[in-house]
Amino acid sequence: MALRLGLEPGLDSPKVKLLDWGETAVSVRYILNRIHFVSAILASLCLAFQLVIITTNVILRYFFASGISWMEEISSCVLFTAFTFLSMAIGVKLDLHINVNLFPKGTPQWITTVLLKLKYLILAVIGSVFLYYGILLIMGIRGSIASVPSLPASLKFILIPLAGLLILCDSVMSLFGVDKDDQYLDRKFMSVGEKK
Questions:
Q1: Phi and psi dihedrals of 152, rounded to 5?
Q2: Comparing 145 with 152, which gets the higher pLDDT?
């Protein structure tokens, strides 16, 4: 339940104040955190599979003077696109994207609040665009991937709407001051090897 309204002592950036949105916010947060967790695993698998494909293709070309024709297209068009958009959604959730602070620390609080709300509103619009046009893109493409005719060409763009939905939901939650539990992914991934 987060609305960035004020500076806490010792912090250089606006801090989060919690607002109570009830059980609805808790259940929405629970569902979104699970979707983010699955998308982080999916992004990791895309990156790992891309690494294996590229390495295999390099070895085949260097040692055997041959390669597998579909490897490059699947790697660069399908896996890289999926990894990029899923990682973008995670970056929005964790606020990890590059930020530029144009205003000095002494700027009135209302200006900081308005600019943060504007930031979340712009991110919500971007998420909406990804969601809407991603769905249109998938539905509008009827062909197949050139090197692997059995795969539909829409596979290249299949995760853009999911990333748009996650960006939209996280931005709206931040806009209205709902806590997104930004530490959820850290807890899930960093506690894997811990003994209980």
A1: -70, 150
A2: 152
